[in-house]
Amino acid sequence: MAPTPLDTARAWAELTDPADPGQRLRLDLTWLTSRWRCLFGEGACPGIDAGEPDAGCCTLGAHFTDADDLARVRAVVERLGPDEWELRDAGLEEGWTVRDEEGSVATRVLDGACILLNRPGFPAGPGCALHQHAVAEGLEPLTTKPDVCWQLPLRRTYREVEEVDGTSYLEVTITEYDRRAWGPGGHDLDWYCTNEPAAHTGAEPLYVSLRAELVELVGEAGYAVLARLCEDHLAAAEALAGRPPIVGPDGRTLLPLLVHPATATARAT
Fold first, then answer.
1. CA 134 to CA 153: how far, in whole Å?
2. Rounded to the nearest 10 degrees, how much is the dihedral formed by the CA atoms of 186, 188, 189, 193?
3. How much is the pTM?
4. What are the pLDDT digits (tens) for 10-53?
């Protein structure tokens, strides 16, 4: 199945953050109610680099967002044993992070992928050593992995909005981390999952399967409202599925409720 277009109509919801009146949440309901799921853990992800299919999206080093992010992951790395981390010796002897010319820190890339990625054939199994450690310890992976890793494929952005009356608020957007979010090189990725129908066959909608991550991004109160809006969106979309367009009293067709195109394609095949 071919990837679906990136620029398609979407349904959005905006609301005042229940935990902070000074900011508003802008939620991409089309993405949050999609059936996206990660194929990497099933060994079905082709990878963003065709030359390293077993590495998924770990062919690039993970850039840390700030000092707290780095400190949190460093504490986990220091607890990893040789039975958990395949490249532990190289990581401890030569370093597991690198710093670029601008001073930002990222995980080191070794032999074509992140140094914290366990390769096929490792006794503990292939995959991120940090993720596997969290699962073994009964922790949420977001507590052990770099922010950029556990947030993918969710994208949180901030924008300061100035009102005409001179007031302002912080707009927090939760949407899809599509290939464009990777920067100029995103369009050159050999494969990417968010608009691929093959990755839209999850048993649960995304807002349910990624509950822990969304709570971390918008808080418990924000998530409670987000979940209700997603439930209402799904119920309305299901009720209208297959029906002709609804015409309002003024004769104009009402806006449709939108399903993520990759989810719709996956369902149709």
1. 19
2. 60
3. 0.93
4. 999 999 999 999 999 999 999 999 999 999 988 899 999 999 99
